[in-house]
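Q&A log
Question type: sequence-to-structure
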Amino acid sequence: MARNLAGLKLSARSRSDETLSRATLAIRQMKSEEVEINFRSVAAQAGVSTAWLYRSKPLREKIMKARTTSPSVAGEAPQYRQRLSHERIVATLRLRIKTLEDGNRELKEQLEAAYGRLAVAAPKAKTTRRLHGNDVRPRINKKNALDDYR
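Response status: OK
Response body:
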């Protein structure tokens, strides 16, 4: 039984090339995002093992070089992340304030319209109140009252 060693070697080579390109892309992406670069983070980002990264000489050199120029070494990454976090919080709060102000303005307009409808309806619906038995009767002019008795 003859084995297809050429096919196996070709398959292994293509998988290795694809893994190398994934790891290289992960390093490039991490540099652009200014994320701390080390063997574990690159392995997690690229989906490869750390042992494979250590065995691959060109990648090992890239990671070692990127590790020394990484922003976290200079102490900028925590400040940068904190500033970015604060900016995101401020943006979220501004958006929330804007939506609340819009809702508030809409409610004020509705209230104003309701008051306007009440003001227009009030003069038309002038109701006269009936007197109850315990209510005080209006005073009658005494002279007119005496004239009725004569």
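Response note: The radius of gyration is 42 Å.
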